[in-house]
Amino acid sequence: MMNLHYTVKGQTVTLTSDQGALILTVLTDQIIRVFQDRGRHTNSYAIEGEKKVETPFDLKEVGDHLELSTGQLTVTVGPDLLLDVFDAQGNPLILDYRGKRRPIAKTIDAAHQSIMRAEGHEVSGVSQTEDRYYQVVKALDPDEQFYGLGDKTGYLNKRSYHYDNWNYDEPRPHIETFTNLYKSIPVLFGLKKGRPWGIFFDNTYRSHLDLGRENADYYFYSAVDGNLDYYILGGSSLKEVVSNYTYLTGRVPLPQRWMLGYQQSRWGYSMSQDRVEQIVDTFAKYHLPLEAIHFDIDYMDGYRVFTWNKNIFKDPAGFLADVKKRGVRVIPILDPGVKEDPDYRIYQEGLDKGYFATNPDGSVYVNRVWPGKSVFPDFGRPEVRDWWAGHCRFLVDSGAAGIWTDMNEPAVFDGEIPEDTVFSDEDQKSDLARMNNVYGHNMAKATYQGLKKATGRRPYVITRAAYAGTQKYSTVWTGDNQSLWPHLQMSIPQLCNMGMSGFSFAGADIGGFSADTTPELLTRWIEAAIFSPLLRNHSALQARDQEPWVFGPKVLDIYRHFLHLRYHFIPYLYDCFAKQMNDGLPVMRPLVLNYPEDARTRNLNDEYMVGDQVLVAPVVEQGQVSRMVYLPEGDWVDLRTMVTYGGHRDILVEAPLDQLPVFVRADSVLPWGRLVEHMDDQPEESMTFRLFGQHGDYTHYQDDGYSFDYEQGAYNLYQIHMENQGQCSVTVTHHGFKPVYRRIRLVLPERTLTLSLDDKSQAPVYRETEA
Ligand code: GLC
Fold first, then answer.
1. Domain ends where: 558, 587, 616?
2. With a 6 A CB cut-off, is 168 part of the ligand 1 pocket?
3. Is residue 582 part of a domain?
4. What pTM does this model have?
5. Is the CB of 296 under 6 A from ligand 1?
6. Do 366 and 468 have their domain in common?
7. Is the CB of residue 480 below 6 angstroms from any atom belonging to ligand 1?
8. pLDDT in tens, 475-485
């Protein structure tokens, strides 16, 4: 007969039985940590600061079980240390599986392996022989769906697939069988019979999630090493569960307003100043908005980070200032690999200070990347991050408006980095096995801190590799996709799951990175991506050109039309970002987040929502000119025609090449931004709000768009009330940012009102004036 003992200290309950020990900590009434010490460092890269708040909870012995309840979540543990989680109504959410796993027999005999290999198939064995391996197996309900996990390929609902958490540079065309890409965000959200839950596995070692692929009776998480350390996330809605996750790992800080505008990139632009100028000039010539141009690796001197190729850029600061005068910012790239070159300052400095990763024998670890033989900053150490951050000033002094960090999985060309390569884990010596998945995180964090210090503005970092929590420091893109229709299709669930995983600021390379785009694909891509938080067209060196004008006037006009649509929506997107800091919900999101009780939303891969009000249903099939759109409950106004459709059904809509079906939830108000070709720091003089339906209320956020003053309350909140048949009003409910709009236009289905700031009044007050 097994026995269970427990001790309580504050909000921590330590359970012991002859099976070992398990520690439960109540962080909030909806977040409980489950921990088992397996002898590894307990620091977290994802969670910063104290997240525990004083929370009363009950402990009860029920038979041979202990029951811990916060009122919102109940956890029961038996002497076998198996654990079950129930919601506030006592419904099961997460139940440890009582049976044994039944692994799929993957081993085939040598003769069969050899004939499969002969045809070129990959034949791999499945090994669980690592001695520090552990697993957590949970019961799977026939009606259970999974979301989250960051940038994984495939579909929105992750059920029946399996994934690895191991940051990796995957150059082959990303397809749904790939188990891992550049990021590891081990957060899983579930809907069990429609009831939401979440688990965040905070372990940076290589881990695996099998979500009912091996067997439909269970799903499991396993890791090759590390402590067992996971957080149970509850909440009365899926939104609340996601919000709890971002409470834990942090939310995206407010971007500068221009970062929501259009950005153009291509590997090769910065091979000559003329090319850069020609791109900037052509955007101006065709009246296409452009906020930033990205400089890929070519701007550097022999791919040495923190240098300029002086043969191309005689006076980098002068050139960048000139580009900025034309309204366009420059975002240069940085890779972690530092060229091994005794005459190169950064290399020498890092070497002298011992800042590079080493082999187990203490010699500096070398591998090949763009610059040839390179060494790798040990970003896990705070002083290395400070050193790197300090050097970011070099690019800022040249006029860079942000930094793009790439190849930080870390990617190398000559074989994989051995897992015992010495990388630091803060102040402790560690290895790649533990630090691989946070290498990009720490590089992005260092870069963010460097930019913040050097500019005082909200930093713009865009990173390829990330871990849970990187959203606090950087926007992300989904890496090297290709100009393929399946990649356009995949970008929607991928970005939706990134959003669910805390990354509100994310995007995919528009047009596709590798391979050659087509006029139709590029057109559909800009349409599909036009509401994605990060809006960047990027392509590879050898790929066919994919600037908006290269396919002639028809594609150009459509492209421009959608960029205009984007700029109309920038105030709405900015409002979503401001809101997101409080509610922790993504800007671009799957329908299931807003309508989890509607089973139709749970496997919807080709539609997404922007906040709560806008539904986007792009055409992502070659040759298609109409499509079915699933509208959830409520009424929806087609933005193109202003026709209202009843929801909870599929409708068929026309969508010729120049059209994107967008629906606005009826009875809502949207801000409607002004068209500009470049954004600047000037406060807007006026703002327009549009009513969709009969009446609506809206909270609009305004600040300077670039500084951190909003943290001290320097922002304004406007409460907008619009009624088609009745009174409309605008009230400033928070006035912390001095400039307010001088004029506000309210556009209703049947009339337009213009309100002006009453100059005589002390507090900002708006009165109706003649249009
Ligand atoms: C990687 C990046 C890509 C970049 C290229 C050259 O493939 O993912 O965006 O253009 O490196 O730096």
1. 587
2. no
3. yes
4. 0.97
5. yes
6. yes
7. yes
8. 999 999 999 99
